[in-house]
Amino acid sequence: MSYEYLKRDQERVKKQYDQLMHEADVEAIEKKLDSLTKKPKQDSMDEIWIDMYKDVLKLKKNRTDKD
Description:
The protein has three helices and no strands. The chain has helices at about 1-20, 25-35, 45-65. The chain is about 85% helix and about 0% strand. The chain is flat and about 45 Å long. The protein has about 70 residues and is mainly α.
């Protein structure tokens, strides 16, 4: 049962990552990251999302700087 939850979470994270990389702009990512980091109580899933948003933001900024 926990394997199914993990698998679903992995799929959800991958889908969100792909969507952010292709559709989201830097400001939207920064806004979402800010709201997650200011959340009073963070769980492990929040920490995963924060790491993912930071990684995507870094990649997008690097891509923008190169263009």
